[in-house]
Write a structure and sequence with these properties.
single chain, about 375 residues, alpha+beta, eight-stranded mixed β-sheet, about 25% strand, globular
């Protein structure tokens, strides 16, 4: 396949290695639906453990790599590992499969998509069927149907319920989209589940840079890849209580608002390729945010800003309000077309988000004053 042309910016030396990129592609392409994240977590942990002193996982599959595990002061860098998906909910006698959401999956992008149904006998290929436009418009007096959860079905080729079940498909089988990692022109990457496996990739790369640059941290660093963010920040809630960190740096995706149908007046002005996004919100610790801002300025890392009101909607909330309170900050990467199969982000933003987290860790110490009063 011919490679897309890259911009001149790609000629600058990248902090991402060939090994890094191979890991990213494999990680993005590995299904890790909410509640069933173990496939991606095994790949992530296998990569990270070479850069940490020890590692562990909790009962629900959150994976953690630890540097300086005996240090009393604990700092977390965190992302979430799960992707939105579907559950098989009902199989009719004609062999068509009806679904229920597993996380905030968008029913409007489903028609005509190819999927994997993860059954007892392994993955089964299927498609979201949708009536041809000729049939939808054949009656001018009838309103054209819109895709909804209750009128979408999967067709795996079976023509009876018994044939579906013979493939190992059962009620509760999880369904993920087929699309994986790809590259576009001008250093853009696309794929499903960049929300937020790109975050897991970036925190792993921070650990790599610390190891390869022989940096010694004056605290314990917990590199956390949490499960079940997409259904209420549950993995972060569990692991925050277990680790009891003193500081948490969370990374997730945020909306690129420079595409049609998004209001900048509501969502702010964020653009892919212009650097990581920092947020103002009650859960964001102001003094920790100021430290990150100072680090960005010192290291000439461009940043963008948005506000997030009552809740960040990210694992930041779980860490900030865990235990006795944990100073927390959110460093986001701009993303186009969130919760679709063509989530898009820019290579430069990935590199600069990694650098911002890395240099923030080097600037942070147990004596950093994070007191409000």
């Amino acid at each position: 396949m011919a490679k897309a042309k890259s911009s001149s910016r790609s000629k600058a030396k990248s902090i991402l290695t060939d090994k890094s990129m191979a890991f990213l592609k494999n990680y993005i392409n590995t299904p890790s639906p909410v509640g069933f994240e173990s496939g991606g977590q095994k790949i992530w942990l296998d990569y990270v453990k070479q850069y940490v002193d020890t590692h562990f996982h909790d009962p629900y599959g959150t994976a953690v790599g630890v540097i300086n595990p005996d240090a009393p002061f604990k700092v977390v860098i965190e992302a979430h590992a799960d992707e939105i998906s579907w559950f098989v909910n009902y199989i009719n006698e004609q062999g068509l499969i009806y679904l229920k959401r597993n996380g905030g999956v968008d029913h409007q992008v489903a028609p005509a998509k190819r999927v994997w149904i993860h059954g007892k006998k392994g993955p089964v290929k299927a498609v979201f069927g949708w009536p041809a436009i000729h049939t939808r418009l054949s009656n001018p007096d009838q309103k054209e149907p819109q895709p909804k959860v209750d009128n979408l079905t999967l067709d795996c080729g079976a023509r009876t319920k018994k044939e579906v079940e013979a493939l190992g498909i059962h009620i509760g089988s999880v369904v993920t989209y087929e699309e994986g990692f790809d590259e576009l022109a001008y250093d853009y990457f696309i794929g499903r589940a960049f929300d937020n496996r790109v975050g897991g990739f970036m925190i792993a790369e921070v650990a790599r840079l610390l190891k390869e640059n022989k940096k010694k941290l004056p605290f314990g660093l917990y590199v956390v890849n949490a499960v079940q963010e997409e259904i209420g920040l549950r993995g972060a809630e569990m692991i925050a209580r277990r680790i009891k960190p003193d500081v948490a740096i969370i990374t997730d995706v945020t909306h690129d608002t420079n595409t049609p149908l998004i209001s900048k007046a509501i969502e702010g002005d964020i653009l892919c390729g212009k650097g990581p996004s920092l947020a103002y919100a009650p859960a964001i610790h102001n003094k920790l945010l100021k430290l990150v801002q100072d680090v960005a300025e010192k290291n000439k890392i461009p940043v963008q800003y948005r506000t997030l009101s009552r809740s960040t909607g990210t694992d930041t909330d779980s860490f900030a309000y865990a235990n006795d309170g944990c100073p927390s900050v959110l460093i986001s990467i701009p993303l186009r077309y969130m919760h679709t199969t063509v989530e898009m982000l820019h290579k430069k933003d990935i590199e600069e988000t990694i650098q911002l987290m890395y240099h923030t860790l080097l600037a942070l110490t147990p004596k950093t004053n994070l007191s409000y009063l």
